[in-house]
Amino acid sequence: MDKIKEMIGQEFWGNAIWQYLVFFGLIVLGILLGKIFYYISKGKLRKAAARSKTKIDDYLIDIIEEPLVLLIITGGVWAGSRFLTLSAAADKIFGELILVLVAMTITWFVIRLVDMLIRYYLEPLVEKSESKLDDQILPIMRKTAKIVILLLALIVVLSNLGYDILSILAGLGIGGLALALAAQDAVKNIIGGVSIFMDKPFQIDDWVEINGKSGSVVEVGLRSTRLKSIGGTTFVLPNSKVADAILENYSTRSARRMTLKIGLTYDTSTEKMKKGMDVIRRALQSVEGIQHEDIMIRFVNFGDFSLDLEVVYWITDMSDWKMIIHRANMEIKEQLDAAGVEMAFPTQTHYVFQQP
After folding, report:
1. β-sheet bridge partners, residue 237
2. Angle at CA of residue 89, ends 88 and 91, nearest 5°
3. N or C: which end of the chain has fewer CB within 10 A?
């Protein structure tokens, strides 16, 4: 026993062995207590919260569970450091370490709290909203909130560690001015993105034309807006240009006017042309999503190769207008073929006269 006391009483770097043992023992104890709390929370506390009528306790356990484990471990490190004989410099380092760990715990908790509020309160509101742009802005809002919390936590920690925040901010201000001058376009695009989210000139999947580029809106970010053209290519437009552009949103129309030119062969008789016009009318009236009362078919031109008919109709179902055009064209082609009315293609007729 005396030998053990003598051995653990030996000093290294100003502390006896028993002090180091207590220090590391309390850290291990903090880790064990943290794990015990974690397992109790995962098992009994969560089950008890699930049995209650309110959901608030479930949310609180979910957000406080892991940060509290880190806080318990931090408590073990702090308690262990109290048993060490430290120099002023070492004591300051330990104090700063504890401060950083506590700040990390609080920041982690606040981030999880904000994330929970967004997930359980804002997301249901966004899902009920008819606007699809809300679905785009919510992830951006979540990331921005986390960045702001982290920056505030960093400022508080640096201030408590003795750094002059005003001097740092002043230095950042000079550098930020140079950065702002170099990043004017990026700032303009971000402001343009915020303007789009606020004004909502279009929704996701709307068919729009912006600066001569037309397509379906697939994504709206803080920097750019993406359109998918009818050919499958993607246009990436800076938000600053989108916000300043004259924008035409075809999807906001209650109906879309379609004009179709159909050429019949020159050997088509008048009676057969009238029959063809009736066939086209019936073909369009059989397609869902077309306004059946306002179909107009006219004989408009003696073309170079054909007798030209102009067909005008209105699409009322704008959610599926591309496929409606397809079905209308297919129906016209099938019914003209069935009626024996021939459509023209460029031809030339040569008349040869023989001298007697």
Report:
1. 225
2. 65
3. C
CATH code given to domain 256-339 = 3.30.70.100
**What are the residues facing 215 on neighbouring strands?**
208
Residue with tokens 């979540």: 142
Please give the CATH architecture assigned to the domain spanning 202-251: Roll (2.30)
Q: Where in the chain is the domain with CATH 2.30.30.60?
A: 202-251
Of 213, 297, 211, 202, the residue nearest 258 (C-alpha): 297
pLDDT digits (tens, 9 = 90+) for 238-296: 888 888 888 888 777 667 788 889 999 998 999 999 999 999 999 999 999 888 888 99
Q: Measure the CA–CA gap between 227 and 204, rounded to whole angstroms.
A: 10
Please list the residue range(s) of the chain that carry CATH number 3.30.70.100: 256-339
pLDDT beyond 80 at 83: no
